[in-house]
Amino acid sequence: MKDYSHLHIGVLALQGAVSEHLQQIEQLGANATAIKTTTELTALDGLVLPGGESTTIGKLMRQYGFIEAIQDFAKQGKGIFGTCAGMILLAKQLDNDPTVHLGLMDICVQRNAFGRQVDSFQTALEVAGFDSPFPAVFIRAPSIQHANHPQVQPLASLNGHIVLAKQHNLLACAFHPELTPDLRIMQLFLEMC
Ligand code: GLN
Questions:
Q1: Is the pLDDT of residue 117 over 80?
Q2: With 99 labelled, which of 65, 88, 120, 145 sits at a CA distance of 20 to 30 A?
Q3: Which one Pfam family would you cite for this protein (predicted)?
Q4: What's the predicted TM-score (pTM) here?
Q5: Which ligand 1 atom sits closest to the C-alpha of 17?
Q6: Domains along the chain?
Q7: Is 116 annotated as contributing to ligand binding?
Q8: What's the gap in Å between 162 CA and the centre of ligand 1?
């Protein structure tokens, strides 16, 4: 396996699925930290925005000064990986919600695009560049309705909606790669960092 021991990756730890991401980062040999204050961002090469409830995480981000701090972090070219609610936080446009949070990525995102909690499911997903499908767990997942910039690279789609996409240093994923033992999407992010 490649050596990622030089990388310091944070997981925003205000609400949501934090520990599973920390574990995957450590399994790949990088250093993982749960981030609770903006000052902790300076030491990082990359940041994961976990799944959870985007309205709650967004509120807490505003309260603790994370909106500007993470926007600055992105401007420095550092990697940001948003999963599920994290994808919603990254989007510049939301299809069914007036509240844009970080507004960093040129995507239009629909919240709960695959239905409610009871409609959660797992599927074998074809991902660009992977030689076998990825076991993707969708939990009240959003999707990318459309990209608003040619620099957005769709990497996986389901039912005609983009569910994994990259734009420079930003990676957005509609499902929960941290809930499966498959480390390939986290590795893809570490490569970007
Ligand atoms: N539906 C949630 C939201 O809109 C996201 C769900 C998730 O992160 N698993 O924030």
A1: no
A2: 120
A3: SNO
A4: 0.96
A5: 8
A6: 8-192 (3.40.50.880)
A7: no
A8: 16
Write out the H or E segment, with its range, that includes residue 172.
Answer: strand 170-173
**How many angstroms is it from 116 CA to the middle of ligand 1?**
10
- Can you tell me which atom of ligand 1 is nearest the CA of 83? 8
Question: Residue 169 in 3-state DSSP?
Answer: coil
The percentage of residues in the chain with a pLDDT greater than 70, rounded to a whole number, is 98
List, chain by chain if needed, residues with CB within 6 Å of any ligand 1 atom.
51-54, 84-85, 88, 111-112, 139-140
**E-strand spans in 13-169?**
31-35, 46-49, 79-83, 91-94, 105-110, 121-125, 134-138, 143-147, 153-158, 161-167
Query: Ligand 1: which residue has its CA nearest to atom 1?
Result: 140
Helix H or strand E segment including 8: strand 8-12
Q: Which residues are catalytic?
A: 84, 176, 178
pLDDT tens figures, 59-71: 999 999 999 999 9
